Amino acid sequence: MQYRGSCHCGKVAYEVEGEFGQAVSCNCSLCARRGSLLAFAPRNNFKLLRGEEDLTTYTFNKHVIQHRFCKHCGVQSFAFGKDRQGNQIAAINLRCLENFEFDKLPVTHFDGRSL
After folding, report:
1. What are the tens digits of pLDDT across the range 85-106?
2. Is 68:80 a contact under the CB 8 Å cutoff?
3. Alpha-carbon distance 65 to 31, whole Å?
4. Binning pLDDT at 50, 70 and 90, where does residue 111 land?
5. Contacts of 14 (CB under 8 A, 6+ apart)
6. Domains in the chain and their CATH numbers?
């Protein structure tokens, strides 16, 4: 399925294609504070529609995930990284997708705090 997502102010918008049958809740220091629910798609299934100049990047810990934030409203609607096999992925904040019923998905808890 193809979905559209954005930050709160709408300056950053994107499309992503994927089958999101579950959400991931991570307890690392950033995700626990942010409260996002994540799903993952191959990086080439992600297309930024607008707002590259409105994004800033934050990395921490091992600096392997590029957390992308809107400079204006502060919302992180996606991040880029690699999966365990080394494939480029997009981590999508399901709460930022338009008309997506994330509350009906099972939630898997990931212990990012221990990494």
Report:
1. 999 999 999 999 999 998 889 9
2. yes
3. 12
4. confident
5. 4, 5, 6, 46, 47, 48, 49, 77, 78
6. 2-114 (2.170.150.70)
